[in-house]
Amino acid sequence: xxxxxxxxxxxxxGLPRFDRITPEHVEPAMAxxxxxxxxxxxxxxxxxxSTWDExxxxxxxxxxxxxxxxxxxxxxxxxxxxxxxxxxxxxxxKDVVAFDLELRQSRAVYERLKGLRESVKAPTAAQSRxxxxxxxxxxxxxxxxxxxxxxRFNAIAAELAELGxxxxxxxxxxxxxxxxxxxxxxEMAGLPATAxxxxxxxxxxxxxxxxxxxxxxxxxxxxxxxYFPFLTYSDRRELRELLYRAARRRGGxxxxxxxxxxxxxxxxxxxxxxxxxxGTYADLSLDAKMAPDVAxxxxxxxxxxxxxxxxxxEELEALRAFAAAEGAAEGEGLxxxxxxxxxxxxxxxxxxxxxxxxxxxxxxAAVLDGLFALTxxxxxxxxxxxxxxxxxxxxxxxxxxxxxxxxGATLAQFYLDPYSRPAEKLSGAWHGTCFGRSRLFAPEGQxxxxxxxxxxxxxxxxxxxxxxxxxxxxxxxxxxxxxxxxHHMLTRVxxxxxxxxxxxxxxxxxxxxxxxxxxxxxxxxLARISxxxxxxxxxxxxxxxxxxEARTYMTGHFVHMQVYLSVLxxxxxxxxxxxxxxxxxxxxxxxxxxxxxVPSVEEDYFLCSFAHIFAGGYAAGYYSYKWSxxxxxxxxxxxxxxxxxxxxxxxxxxxxxxxxxxGLGGSEAPGAxxxxxxxxxxxxxxxxRHNGLVRAA
Length: 697
Hints:
The chain is mostly helical. Among the domains are: 8-173, Neurolysin, domain 3, CATH 1.10.1370.40; 178-242, no CATH class; 364-501, 3-Layer(aba) Sandwich (Collagenase (Catalytic Domain)). The protein has 26 helices and seven strands. The protein has helices at 26-46, 52-79, 83-104, 107-119, 125-140, 147-177, 193-205, 224-233, 237-249, 259-276, 281-286, 294-325, 339-351, 355-359, 364-379, 472-489, 511-517, 523-529, 541-549, 555-574, 584-595, 611-614, 624-642, 647-662, 670-678, 685-690; strands at 180-182, 218-220, 382-385, 398-403, 410-419, 430-435, 452-459. A hairpin with a 6-residue loop joins β4 and β5 (410-419). α20 packs antiparallel against α21. 43% of the residues are buried.
């Protein structure tokens, strides 16, 4: 039998042992662990357990060991993907899904949980929320089904898990399989030094050993670090078009075609919904969210778009007019691959600065130092690197501790993996849970186990002796993910099932992350996080003023596009009929054309790379970004009202924010937590104001 000593995935004491874990450990680890956990579940079912610790505590111990081992495998599959790890992951996934369902479908445990609702005298808010979450999870897992219906439900769950993994793998493979090698100076026209350096670095990695930023050759991929700078700066319109079209085809062609997977996923979700007795998958999804129903979500989206769409139309007309004045053909027919290019040109003309100039002030180390200093100012904690304290999965990853300054006690810990690695790392940015705060998993001599987070970004990597120089958008992304991390790590809740972000409604989970984004537009923060890569100077006041002035530039377009994606997601999960007269691709094209303000391309398979809803947790929940952003803007308004230059006032509001939105986690309903911080019901006013969408009367 595999033991703790010979399989690092089963070493549950402390942090994962990334220096020892290999793909070969996955199958024997799960083969040893699942029977052990199944035996623990059966013992709980046979027992006379009736107290909180006997029932919920036993469940948390089982769930915690399961989450640690399988969560480590899933994390590595996203950040250190390889054929061997994929094979190992896929080999055990079906057994893992089956056990997860067994755990949630235990009739004996379900009855014990319902019994605790009656027997626990004066339950805490955390206990009540824990019971509500566990009972609802069981009901959504088919606890009410029997016989053939439950067997079919379980088969659907297993297949959906496999399809989600395949969807992600296809996206990664499609991105890996496409590249563009440029060899002439004319092909690189308009690209800044940072983009040239990265493209040369890509070429060297692909075997062009003599590639240089000055002489080439240069290689582009579909990774965001390549794609966005090229579409923003390249003067070669036909090459921008080539790259844009390749990105829109990703996951929609050849062996990596996700189209059939999408149809199957939607059909299975519809069948799952019917088995559970809900009208649509969107109804099922919202049953565990803050929004009460689809109509309420659609009303908010309509309100936001009513404000955003007219502004977006004006913004695009301004791009066309500017292009026409420059004598460009785009003035007659602005295409999708022109929008970022002319947006940057207009921004440079209107605000007298360009994104590349600003980027030189944002070396990664300076941004990180400033982020940590802001966190200390607002929330009264200290963050310190702890390199060598534990192993990491890649040399670019750094391990940190969050410390209480007054005592020196460690409060939490996290890993930060900042740079793009398209050969092995999934695109995008995310926060992942290594493990959560819990009194039941407390090491000897401690009151509770401290939380640990993974924070993963895909920002521009260092190049040719230069540090990673971050775009303002990459800075914003880092602050966003760190907000998720703070939510997880600064929780004050010891009940593991509702500590941090666990069992927080999905349309509230983005509030702490969107909240942190607001700071990257504030003068004090911009000065704090900036240090010119050559001179060491902070952003000058005139550049800070221009960044602030440009904050609302193109926000009508951006908000309109987010509303469009939210509508697309909801319609696919609320109105789409698999196998009906309209395919998912056709529905996508119809909604895209209804919302699109620039022409679409002929082969537009964007849906095949919409991983948020087909391989992530955002199915019938993509609206959560905008729902949460309304709340986060309102929460930031409390800091604005206190005075962003008043350090004492900021510290006081920060303390209240830490105690409520960050500290309470999932232990209370999100509406109650929000009211406890702001002191009233939420308002859309701050969101509209921050985005420049408040129209003059």
